[in-house]
Amino acid sequence: MDNSINNKYPSYSGVNITCNVIDPTKLPPDSPLLHTPPQCTMEPNNGCQCGQCYPGNYYVNNWGGFPPYPMYPPYMGPQPTQNTKKKRVQVLTDQYIKNLEQYLNSPSEDMRKFAAQEVLKRLDEDRTRYNDAALNALINKMLQDPTCHKVKATALTALETQLAQGNDNTVKILSNIAQNDKSRNGADAATAANILLKMSSPTKLVDVPANSNTSQGIIEP
Questions:
Q1: Does the structure show a pLDDT above 70 at 192?
Q2: How confident is the model at residue 164 (pLDDT cuts 50, 70, 90)?
Q3: 37, pLDDT greater than 90
Q4: Residue 68 in contact with residue 57, Cβ under 8 Å?
Q5: What domains appear along the chain, each with residue ranges and CATH number?
Q6: How far apart are CA 62 and CA 64, in angstroms?
Q7: What is the rounded distance in angstroms from the CA atom of residue 92 to the CA atom of residue 7?
Q8: Most C-beta atoms within 10 A of its C-beta, which of 55, 77, 147, 202?
Q9: Mapping DSSP to helix (H, G, I), strand (E, B) and coil, where does residue 29 land?
């Protein structure tokens, strides 16, 4: 270790501080001085008490062309933590999906309306289910309910609010509604056309304020 290079550096307080400067290019690769910054106690005119000190601009200017010590990011103060809470959701088992399908096939309109609301709730409680194949198949069945407009309207709501993505069969059913459905003064046909327009372009996730209310309206039975 070569400690023969002595430089004098004036401090900002006007006190001259003399340090023994170590040339890092002459240190062996496994030297701890390359990995641990030297600790110095500077006293007026006494130099570095430990006898090991780099120039004051060493870390900033990469003195001597030698890699400097890691530059740690500035302390930004305490950062806010992401608070989460548990939420209970319904598990979509095969039996549960079969039961929903049976309810949607029921001759009772009340049973079909109840099942339609359950499908909508399953989509709303977990937004990652928007492209779930089983739920989208049930949405298609709801769109084709033979007599109960509430069931069809619930399916249209799920698609219009993009809780459900739909599939190729959904596009065919909506196209038929948009072109041929004359009920309710063409209101369902207009809704179907609007949904088809949205489905013609993909969606993406964006960041929103944590306290924003993103829940969608649900048609009550």
A1: yes
A2: very high
A3: no
A4: no
A5: 6-65 (no CATH), 94-199 (1.25.10)
A6: 6
A7: 75
A8: 55
A9: coil
Confidence (pLDDT) at 79: 64
pLDDT in tens, 39-90: 444 444 444 444 444 444 444 444 444 444 444 455 566 666 667 888 899 9
Tokens of 119: 């499908």
Dist. CA 135–CA 81, nearest whole Å: 35
Ranges of beta strands (E only) in the chain are 6-10, 16-20, 42-43, 47-48
The span from the CA of 205 to the CA of 194, in Å, is 21
| Closest-CA residue to 92 (of 116, 126, 117, 140) | 126
Here the tokens at position 101 are 């399908």
DSSP, collapsed to helix, strand or coil, labels residue 48 as: strand
Tokens of 105: 């096939």
Tokens of 157: 């709501």
